[in-house]
Amino acid sequence: MVLTACAAPAGAPAAAPQAGEAAGETYATVVEAGELLPPVVAQPCEGDACFCRDKTVTVIVNTAGEKGPISGPFYEVRDEFEKATGAKLEIVEVPFAEHFPKLLTDLTTGTGQYDISVAGAWWLGDLVGGDYILPLDDYYNDTSGKYPKWDVEDVQPGPRDLLFYGGKLYMVANDHDGQVMYYRRDLLEDPQHQAAFKEQYGYDLKVPDTIQEFRDVAEYFNGKDLNGDGTPDNGLTMHLKVGGQGMFHFMSFSAPFVIGPDNPKLYWFDPETMEPLMDSPGHQRAMETLVDLIQFGPEAMMGWSLGESWDHFLRGQAALTFTWGDLGALAQQEGSQVKGKTGAAPMPGTTEYYDITSGQWKQVEGVNKVGNTTGGSWAGVISKFSDAPDCAYFLLALMAHPEKSKVYAYRGWDGVDPGRFSHYLPPYGTNTIDGYVAAGWDPGDAESYTNAYYENFSSELMFPYLRIPGTFEYWTALDVHLSEAATGQKTAAEALKATVDDFDAITDRLGRDLQREIYVKSLGLE
């Protein structure tokens, strides 16, 4: 059967999109909503302990319903929150493309209609830059016992950094997005394939460690029957339709061509001038390499969005792909042809990178791997204009409680991906396989999946996440020109030059000096 991922409304942004206008998010389901519930951790309050009595906390979140991703857990926790504080919880769902504009209108007018927004991490450039949301350090550090406790140190360094801006805590941990490589474990462990691969390439078939090895494995399996239906399948699957989130995948893929030991932060702009860096030799080689890989996938993927590429892997029709954590959860669903066969590993790396700071290619010892936090990493922020900020923080801290967070990470349907030590199995974390098995996971798939995310988020080098005003507009320009290169309308050099031109125009319109100031702050280069 065809497994179709459930996606939020999609569509390319308008000419000058706000920070929240994206192409949509796609999520997976392992267990159905209601089948595996997080424990109650807050006890009902009495008397003066009901410090939020007669107050209402209003949350704005992307439309997904009572049993949908990101929004669903708020409905689950509502009764517990209301009994523990005396407050009322109002959940306002809005279409994805309307969330940020509605929030920004509320903030710029000082209305205070929404106490909490479940925001994308890239929004912080706008929200902190505009002084619209509260730093949460005082709430987090409160020792009175008033608030549920969660441990920011339990969050791995990569996703933990997204919770902070300018050295202050602004988001409460929730979802932890990042991209890893997925591979067919059964194919790589097959003795016949191992022998044939070694004869053809001169080395052992293994999980690709470098992008060259990724290419070799994709080339080897391309055209072979990978699911036993008698028809040729593909070495890899990607999605390259404009508006289909392909630019996110280019970011993760291109990182080790540009980021390295001597250049850990410069990928997007020169922090002195805000001149775009996107046409560097490293970016160009990355795009040329990605375009070269297209030959090992189905022709149809040129017009695919994210869910269609996932379906191709889930039907057993591709040996490799790289994407978000949702695919690992989708592989466990009834109807998946790859449950018990799906491995995961950090994104492959390179043996050299182009050091923008010195203007030269540099060799590395071993493999240059770069972790990433690519994606939304949806988490709560509190409006500066909230009249119940302490109640709002209680709610977010309650949902960040480790015993709840573990269940969220198991399930899949709630859209919360792992990123905490308490999500991982030993020796990397404190969790056990039992929770994943209870949620329907194959034990081998779960171990490989969680280990991959631990390694990704623990990388010494992390892809620099862009968090400035207009972020999604910059990303959309990259998306458009990436598609032009993929379809042969432009060379990689031409596509990246067009990207640079668009970036400059966006920066000039938004104000180069202000953009530079916020960019430098976002990178911690002040």
TrEMBL record:
<protein>
    <submittedName>
        <fullName>Extracellular solute-binding protein</fullName>
    </submittedName>
</protein>
<keyword id="KW-0813">Transport</keyword>
<keyword id="KW-0732">Signal</keyword>
<dbReference type="InterPro" id="IPR006059">
    <property type="entry name" value="SBP"/>
</dbReference>
<comment type="similarity">
    <text>Belongs to the bacterial solute-binding protein 1 family.</text>
</comment>
<dbReference type="Pfam" id="PF01547">
    <property type="entry name" value="SBP_bac_1"/>
</dbReference>
<dbReference type="InterPro" id="IPR050490">
    <property type="entry name" value="Bact_solute-bd_prot1"/>
</dbReference>
